[in-house]
Known about the structure:
With 68 residues, this protein is an all-alpha fold. It has four helices and no strands.
Amino acid sequence: xxDRTLAAQLGSLPEGVAALPxxxxxxxxxxxxxxxxxxxxxxxxxxDEALRFxxxxxxxxxxxxxxx
Length: 68
């Protein structure tokens, strides 16, 4: 199964979503991917902004501990 499909992203689909035409399911899958990309960017930005409150000498160690 293509990991870009809606079922691959969500698992089993609710009845209402499964009843949608394939084209609309593809649109919904793309919207979900776009939302996840925006969320990932927002989380990365928030993490970077939070590091401004950490003293400069400690930032590399904190980044490493956070996996950034």
